Amino acid sequence: MIDPSDFYRLDLELTEDERLLRDTLRAFVQREFMPGVAAHFEAGTFPVDIALRLGELGLLGMKYEGYGCAGASNVDYGIACQELEWGDSGLRSFVSVQTSLVIHPIHTWGSEEQKRRYIPSLARGELIGCYGLTEPDHGSDPGGMATRAVRDGDGFVLNGAKMWITNGTIADLAVVWARLDDDIAGFIVEKGTPGFTAPEMKRKLSLRASVTSELVFDEVRLPADSRLPGASGLGAPLGCLNEARYGIAWGAMGAAAACYECALDYVRSREQFGKPLAAFQMTQEKLVRMLSEITRGRLMNLRLGRMKDAGIARHVHVSLAKYANVSAALEIARTARTLLGANGITLEYPPIRHAANLESVLTYEGTHEIHTLIVGREITGEDAFH
Ligand SMILES: Cc1cc2nc3c(=O)[nH]c(=O)nc-3n(C[C@H](O)[C@H](O)[C@H](O)COP(=O)(O)OP(=O)(O)OC[C@H]3O[C@@H](n4cnc5c(N)ncnc54)[C@H](O)[C@@H]3O)c2cc1C
Questions:
Q1: pTM of the model as a whole
Q2: CB 340 within 8 A of CB 263
Q3: Parallel, antiparallel, or unpaired: how do β-strands 212-222 and 196-197 relate?
Q4: Is the CB of 175 inside a 6 Å radius of any atom of ligand 1?
């Protein structure tokens, strides 16, 4: 595939299999997702049937070994996120949640029985998962969470509420983080458990082709084997977020590329003052700025992915990529919007949809400010969080 956003021929740094993955997914997204995306965005719905197709393609839990997962590399996962978010942040979010926030904790901290019971069906897209960490009063500071589990015989009773949970209403199971004694523990809560409800949050103006929900736990009785036995402390939920943020850094550059490609196409064909918009200096300056940021972001992602595959990437490296790439993508989407003039504000073209989505992406999985503080602490040795 000729990729107009690949100015430095980064494809030459990819293996043949990686290039094939990229091309296969771009074609899949164009063929099976793009025709309906504007309607889903307008209606505020996620095309839930696509879960099975994502499973067939081996994208759900792709970087984990065994239990029906594809055992792919981190670079493969990054490429997948990039191509899915070329379509829409909602599509990439679905795969991020299922992979990094649901399969990851079960694979990492679950019992053998939990792994066998849930992961193969999650990987096939037959089961949908969600991840409950954020609460109404505790977002950037999840350590303050109020959701609590207490021991009850062999099992637990869970009380509390989570908010802004991707996939919540459509999920068959939720990975939920709660206080337990003096610890923070992870639980698998199945849909239909008495006392557990997941009402959808409406009236969002961002990430509309994605379901966002509250999770409410009112005296929810959980069996002993609902607890993830290996997960203890805040490091476990934060570890999941680190995996998801890595995919987001790649995904943001997919959204940016979609906006750049759309704008480039548009300014070449539309004429004003007797010549194409592409022939004006200010248009070219905008395009060059966009391309420069995409080139930088992609170089960063590929280097980060190779570091992760080599086992030398730390969470601060992931934070810097999320920080840099999401804000750059948001700026690119807004700039692309201006290049399309009035057409830029409609769902006929992708930039306004991506720009609206990227407002959520800037906030979730650690806000832009929180990643600034994480990297700031690393380079100065000073903790500016508190
Ligand atoms: C569409 C969408 C989907 C989401 N999906 C999920 C999900 O699946 N699961 C889940 O658990 N959560 C999810 N979230 C929640 C998301 O992770 C939180 O919104 C995020 O962590 C920020 O929390 P908050 O919204 O409470 O903002 P707050 O923490 O209240 O922050 C508000 C502002 O204050 C800033 N701020 C906070 N602390 C500091 C500080 N120390 N210094 C400087 N500035 C600071 C923040 O950067 C931000 O700008 C989702 C959010 C959205 C929008």
A1: 0.98
A2: yes
A3: antiparallel
A4: no
